[in-house]
């Protein structure tokens, strides 16, 4: 069959999908309801207590029997009868008739919202050998009658798979089903197996509803997809999820979708021990870079047979390994353990592209293998990993350009001790930046010095043993920041010098040199008034600030009159 060799990913048209859907087998309603009662709602069974003909009974929804719990014949009396008789509403007991664990409910109350709902995933074989998974809502409604039986609800979602064929039928807002041959099965509806249970009966959907799988094994064995080693894959996917996220559901629909597109390759990958590679693509939607037109695993991975056997023997075949080997071949390096580990380290780095660009610069002056050896030597000198080396090397090249050094020269581009030179150039650039900043601050400080007498006449004020004055410059702000343990120097020096805000100090007249309170004043309003460690100003300062604001207001009125 052509589709088994991956020549066509989906041979179905919309009309053919509609015909398959119209000729689908009927859903076994009785089987679904019986399965729902015994398997789906197995942990949601109740014991409804009620009175009838002067006696007390309990109706067990698990076995469907009315059990008398006030019997007088001591031969028939058991501990279970005693527990049920004394149990209160919402207590948990065991049914005297069947022994099933049930929750006690008073038949006369608490049933207005008592309705159990779940989803059953029914698997059926179609006439052409495909399988159809239909997700049906089932429920047990106890709001009206506590002797309720399971009822079938609507069909929510369906997915069809065959060799080279697939389609999905999704419920629309109008209540109908939209059939699509292009849409990929997603996890929006129950389509994943819980990794905790290996019997493949427990499913989950994203909305938190529990779903049970019915008839999957039987349908799969009789279909064209019977060669899918899905149990082997399931175990591997469990381990993959447990290493990352505990109790994360395995994506079975994703596996069926992958197998329907590439049946031979997927089957051989799993059987040859490469389930991790398939799981990474299915579970995490990783891009593998594989050639899916091939059916031989090593050819699909773009490896030689010797390279494939070497990697398989080490048990390191994964998506990141394939990306590393592809990069290794791109740079013309030998397939060795050290080289694979070298490029493999980049796959787990946030600065992957940055590292590759830095490596490209090294390759302009060194052969591929010598470039790798140089990086490894620098890593052994204190960097730890090649990723850290190339990240700092990229910064080093930028430093060289800023310092006017020609990076096209090998002596500059390939330093003997990268760590030492990177530190030296960092210090030099920091020194130059501080000098420029100091020059700019000095120029603006001169401008501030001219405006300072005006600021003193405007803001200086004293009363009640306190006085306020403006800051006299950067040095004054530095002393204030250190004494008050705040950020007035680091965050407000530039703003103060550019006259975007005003910084003032409140002092005690008895100790004018001791820092007390720092004030930010802007647009005629006090923005901040903080004491030591950014604590609120003490009450005496708050009263003083009110008097100071009144003083500024009166000065403005006086100037306006004059």
Fold and architecture overview:
The longest helix is centred in the C-terminal third of the chain and has 42 residues, at 418-459. The protein is an alpha+beta fold. Strand 1 (46-52) and strand 2 (55-60) form a beta hairpin. It folds into four domains: 2-26 and 116-286, no CATH class; 35-114, no CATH class; 311-425, no CATH class; 460-561, no CATH class. The protein has helices spanning 14-22, 29-40, 79-86, 216-221, 230-242, 252-261, 263-271, 275-284, 297-300, 305-314, 319-330, 337-346, 352-363, 368-383, 386-402, 410-413, 418-459, 474-484, 488-497, 539-561, and strands spanning 46-52, 55-60, 65-68, 92-94, 101-106, 115-125, 131-141, 151-162, 165-171, 177-180, 192-193, 202-204, 210-214, 461-463, 466-470, 502-508, 517-522, 525-530. The model is unreliable at 1-7 and 188-210 (pLDDT under 50). The protein is flat. 44% of the residues lie in helices and 19% in strands. The strands form three sheets. An eight-stranded mixed sheet has the order 10-9-8-7-6-13-12-11, sandwiched between helices. A five-stranded mixed sheet has the order 3-2-1-5-4, with helices on one face. A five-stranded antiparallel sheet has the order 14-15-16-17-18.
In terms of DSSP E residues, the strand content is 15-25%
Categorize the overall geometry. Answer: flat
Q: Unreliable stretches, pLDDT < 50, 5 or more residues? A: 1-7, 188-210
Radius of gyration: 39 Å
Beta-strand segment tally: 18
**Largest sheet composition:** 8 strands, mixed
Overall residue-averaged pLDDT value? 83
Number of helices: 20
The tally of domains stands at 4
Structural class estimated from helices and strands: alpha+beta
Distance between the termini: 103 Å
Share of residues in helices: 40-55%
């Amino acid at each position: 069959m052509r589709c088994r060799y991956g020549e066509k990913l989906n041979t179905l048209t919309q009309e053919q999908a509609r015909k398959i859907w119209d000729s689908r087998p009927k859903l076994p309603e009785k089987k679904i309801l019986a399965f729902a009662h015994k398997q789906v709602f197995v942990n949601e069974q109740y014991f409804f207590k009620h009175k009838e003909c002067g006696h007390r009974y309990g109706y067990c929804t698990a076995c469907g029997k009315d059990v008398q719990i006030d019997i007088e014949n001591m031969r028939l009396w058991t501990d279970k009868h005693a527990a049920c008789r004394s149990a209160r509403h919402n207590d948990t007991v065991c049914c005297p008739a069947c022994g099933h664990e049930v929750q006690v409910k008073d038949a006369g109350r608490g049933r207005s919202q008592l309705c159990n709902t779940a989803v059953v995933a029914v698997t059926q074989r179609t006439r052409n050998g495909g399988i159809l998974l239909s997700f049906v809502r089932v429920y047990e409604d106890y709001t009206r009658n506590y002797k309720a039986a399971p009822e079938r609800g609507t069909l929510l979602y369906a997915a069809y798979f065959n060799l080279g064929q697939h389609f999905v039928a999704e419920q629309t807002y109008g209540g109908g089903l939209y059939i699509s041959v292009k849409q990929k099965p997603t996890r929006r509806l129950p389509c994943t197996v819980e990794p905790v249970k290996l019997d493949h009966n427990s499913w989950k959907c994203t909305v938190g509803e529990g779903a049970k799988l019915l008839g999957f094994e039987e349908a799969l064995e009789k279909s064209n997809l019977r060669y899918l080693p899905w149990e082997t894959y399931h175990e591997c996917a469990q381990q993959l999820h447990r290493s990352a996220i505990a109790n994360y559901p395995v994506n079975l629909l994703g596996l069926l979708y992958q197998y329907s597109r590439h049946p031979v390759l997927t089957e051989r990958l799993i059987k040859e021990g490469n389930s991790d590679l398939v799981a990474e693509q299915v579970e995490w939607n990783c891009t593998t870079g594989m050639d899916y037109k091939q059916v031989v695993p090593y050819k699909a991975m773009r490896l030689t047979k010797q390279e494939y056997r070497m990697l398989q023997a080490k048990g390191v075949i994964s998506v990141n390994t394939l990306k590393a080997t592809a990069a290794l071949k791109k740079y013309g390096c030998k397939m060795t353990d050290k080289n694979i580990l070298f490029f493999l380290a980049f796959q787990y780095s946030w600065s992957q592209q940055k590292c590759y660009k830095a490596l490209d610069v090294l390759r302009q002056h060194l052969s591929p293998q010598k470039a790798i050896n140089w990086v490894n030597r620098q890593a052994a000198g204190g960097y730890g990993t090649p990723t850290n080396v190339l990240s700092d090397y990229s910064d080093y090249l930028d430093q060289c350009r800023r310092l006017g050094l020609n990076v096209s020269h090998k002596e500059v581009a390939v330093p003997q001790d990268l760590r030492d030179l990177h530190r030296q150039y960092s210090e030099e650039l920091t020194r130059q930046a501080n000098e420029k900043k100091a020059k700019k601050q000095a120029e603006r400080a001169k401008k501030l010095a001219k405006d300072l007498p005006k600021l003193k006449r405007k803001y200086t004020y004293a009363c009640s043993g306190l006085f306020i004055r403006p800051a006299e410059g950067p040095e004054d702000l530095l002393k204030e920041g250190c004494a008050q343990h705040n950020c007035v120097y680091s965050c407000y020096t530039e703003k103060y010098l550019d006259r975007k805000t005003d910084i003032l100090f409140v002092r005690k007249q008895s100790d004018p040199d001791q820092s007390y309170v720092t004030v930010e004043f802007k647009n005629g309003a006090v923005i901040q008034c903080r004491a030591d460690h950014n604590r609120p100003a003490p009450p005496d300062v708050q009263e003083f600030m009110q008097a100071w604001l009144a003083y500024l207001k009166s000065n403005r009125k006086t100037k306006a009159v004059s």
